[in-house]
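Report of the visiting student (M.T.), summer placement. My assignment was to run the structure pipeline on a short list of targets and document each run. The first record concerns GID complex catalytic subunit 2.
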Amino acid sequence: MFSPSTPSASTTTAAGSLLPFSSPEATRALNSTIALHLARLGAFESLSSLNEQTHHTVQDAVPDHLLASLKELHRVLAHLKEGVCTSALEWIDQKRRSSEQSSLEDWAGHAKSDPDPDSDLEFELRKEEYIQLLLSNSSDDEDVAERQPLPSPSPSSASHDKCQQASIHLALRYGGHHFRRLMTPARRSHIEALLTAPIYMPFERLLSSPYALIFAPYAPTKSTLPSDGSTPTCAMFTAAFLSTLDLPKDSPLIVVTDIGGSGAMAKIHKVRAVMKEQKTSWSAIGELPVEVPLPINRRYHSIFACPVSKEQSTPSNPPMLLTCGHVIARESLVRLARGTPTLKCPYCPVISHASAAVRVHF
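After the run finished, the structure tokens were exported:
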């Protein structure tokens, strides 16, 4: 909890304007940001303590329905970290059914741009279950949800070979059923590798096979599994789950900390001091006069604005790439063509064909 210091009434007025987040509104906003951050992390006990210390002023930042959803998120993540994907797959199925129902109710004759946004996530989960089945040694293990973390490969024996063959057949049956539905040109080679890998079993041979990169993460090690949700599958599920709550995949507190701590705040403070010495008003500039360093993962694409019309692009007026490499909005392209099949680029002497322009996706 952040609370501005108020040593005395005489100093509060003089220093109040100098302290960051000194106003009640700013303090509430900061505490609410911290509360949402704690809820996203799954630190629900800390969130409860913060709520009590702030006299329940941050409760609106994390309403009951949002808190319940975030608890559900971390329940599923806990299962994923144990190698159990059933809860995540059930969530995908439930979301898909809800989406299909909403599409039927709101159908207006428009084609979907992305019929299954969770296809990549489901493929990763199905792949995880397939590998767990392939590497398991129990032929009775039909229910993936009841499996425990994989044991280290044991020495070969007759009974072990029978169990291994049963596991291979069970995995191939599972993969043949689910991977057929999830097959795309981009996934073809990956699925082929998964279904071909069993010929290199047992696990020791698999680790020296052409498919070793796929199965290397499942090799037994002395270190424990990561428990911070940093695995790719956990990260994908978290992003998909948070999108249904209209929350970004990264906490705002983490974003501003990454940007500020990477040197942005120091650079801005230095520029601000120079501008103050030169008696230049910050608001008069309207933008930063220097480039601010940002981490690579915090460099976001801006919304495209047409350099000709100065208007932001929309789905009906998307950015179009000319043959010369310059990008303008579609409406600007039509105006420049003036009913002819060709147009001159407004920024270079190249003559482009309007039909050759390609839509750009940012």
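The domain at 301-362 is CATH 3.30.40.10 (Herpes Virus-1). The beta strands are 319-321, 327-329, 342-344, 351-353, 358-359. I thank the supervising group for their guidance throughout the placement.
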